[in-house]
């Protein structure tokens, strides 16, 4: 039998028809359900549930007690803080289950971070390198690099790819105080200046 190129703690349950990328680590009491696809070099903390057909890109870090329900897709290098929540049904009823045909898709783009205990309501996209603050409730699409805080979450600024809040430099330009990257605002979208 070939040695696995990833680690799964003995307390975790991995269903059939699951793909797990090289270098990924799945820790205590996780459940990875049928059809899930997990990329390379990911880390899944204790008590993570990855539901049927969920897609997780390379380099993602999913902290303890996160459930990724069917319909959720994480692109590369996404961070999910402890106990953050994803939904997949806008109008759930125990008596009237819709099944997977009624689930709404949620996409979290490359490099985005979801803070501890934040909730992402299904049917929305969280943009690249966006930062969702702890406890926020995302109920609309989030632009790339947006800093979102509160209930419901509202944009409170812009963040750099490195995660720091950007400082205004000129009318439509922003600079990172840590790494020095500069960005320009064009048609309400933040773009890195090369």
Give a concise summary.
Helices cover 0% and strands 35% of the residues.
Question: Can you walk me through this structure?
Answer:
With 194 residues, this protein is mainly beta. 0% of the residues lie in helices and 35% in strands. The protein has no helices and 26 strands. It has strands at residues 7-8, 13-14, 19-20, 25-26, 31-32, 37-38, 43-44, 49-50, 55-56, 61-62, 67-68, 72-74, 79-80, 85-86, 106-108, 113-114, 119-120, 125-126, 131-132, 137-138, 146-149, 154-158, 167-170, 173-175, 182-186, 189-192. The strands form five sheets. The protein has a nine-stranded mixed sheet with strand order 1-4-7-10-13-16-19-21-22, with no helix packed on it. The N and C termini lie far apart (49 Å).
């Amino acid at each position: 039998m070939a040695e696995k190129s990833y680690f799964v703690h003995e307390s975790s349950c991995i269903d059939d028809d699951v793909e797990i990328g090289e270098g990924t680590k799945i820790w205590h009491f996780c459940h990875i359900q049928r059809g899930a696809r997990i990329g390379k070099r990911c880390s899944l903390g204790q008590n993570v549930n990855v539901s049927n057909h969920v897609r997780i890109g390379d380099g993602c870090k999913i902290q303890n007690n996160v459930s990724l329900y069917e319909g959720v897709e994480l692109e590369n290098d996404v961070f999910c803080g402890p106990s953050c929540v994803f939904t997949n049904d806008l109008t759930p009823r125990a008596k009237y289950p819709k099944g997977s045909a009624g689930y709404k898709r949620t996409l979290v783009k490359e490099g985005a971070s979801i803070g501890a205990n934040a909730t992402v309501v299904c049917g929305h996209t969280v943009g690249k390198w966006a930062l969702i603050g702890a406890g926020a409730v995302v109920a609309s699409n989030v632009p790339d690099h947006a800093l979102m805080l509160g209930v419901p979450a509202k944009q409170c600024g812009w963040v750099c790819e490195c995660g720091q809040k950007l400082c205004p430099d000129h009318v439509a330009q922003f600079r990172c105080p840590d790494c020095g990257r500069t960005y320009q605002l064009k048609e309400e979208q933040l773009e890195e200046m090369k």
